[in-house]
């Protein structure tokens, strides 16, 4: 670190001031509503701070960029310990729909846009959005299956090339 400064925290521990983050690459691998939003919020926050952002959707995370599916993401209620409900209750008919409806209401109150609008917003700020080639091939998808904001279908190797110098965040 060329421009690092050392300061002392209140408890006497040395704190190192590092250079600001200039670039992030965010991998979104799960397709539930509660799994997609953290990556979108982080990408949006990065762009608002002037940080270059790349979103890479892989496996079930691609549900958030598939045109016919992105408006239908649900909250996972079964096997989700953060729901604080027994798995048996989470599996009851209508529980996922109920949890999804409640989460969407809370997000709307906080002025957090729906997935489609959020992806459009993030892309419009200059973020790059990619789908994982291996996952696209595995699920037999094509570029036509994705929303217009998807810039390309790329390999993991290409993702790493584009992420040179970036902080990689896996959500």
Automatic annotation (TrEMBL):
Coiled-coil residues: none
Protein origin, superkingdom: Bacteria
One Pfam family recorded for the sequence: DrsE_2
SUPFAM superfamilies: DsrEFH-like (SSF75169)
Signal peptide (UniProt feature, chain positions): none
Protein name, per record: Peroxiredoxin family protein
Organism of origin: Halalkalibaculum roseum
């Amino acid at each position: 670190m060329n421009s690092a400064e050392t300061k002392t925290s209140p408890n006497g521990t040395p704190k190192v001031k590092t250079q600001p983050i200039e670039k992030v690459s965010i991998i979104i691998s799960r397709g539930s509503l509660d799994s997609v939003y953290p990556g979108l919020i982080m990408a949006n926050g990065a762009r608002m701070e002037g940080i270059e952002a790349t979103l890479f959707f892989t496996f079930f995370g691609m549900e958030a960029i598939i045109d016919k599916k992105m408006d239908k993401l649900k909250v996972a209620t079964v096997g989700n310990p953060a729901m604080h409900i027994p798995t048996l209750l989470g599996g009851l008919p209508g529980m996922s729909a109920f949890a999804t409806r409640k989460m969407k209401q809370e997000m709307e109150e906080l002025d957090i846009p729906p997935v489609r609008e959020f992806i459009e917003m993030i892309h419009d700020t200059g973020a790059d959005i990619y789908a994982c080639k291996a996952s696209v091939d595995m699920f037999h998808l094509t570029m036509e299956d994705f929303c217009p904001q998807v810039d390309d279908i790329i390999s993991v190797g290409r993702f790493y090339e584009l992420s040179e110098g970036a902080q990689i965040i896996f959500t």
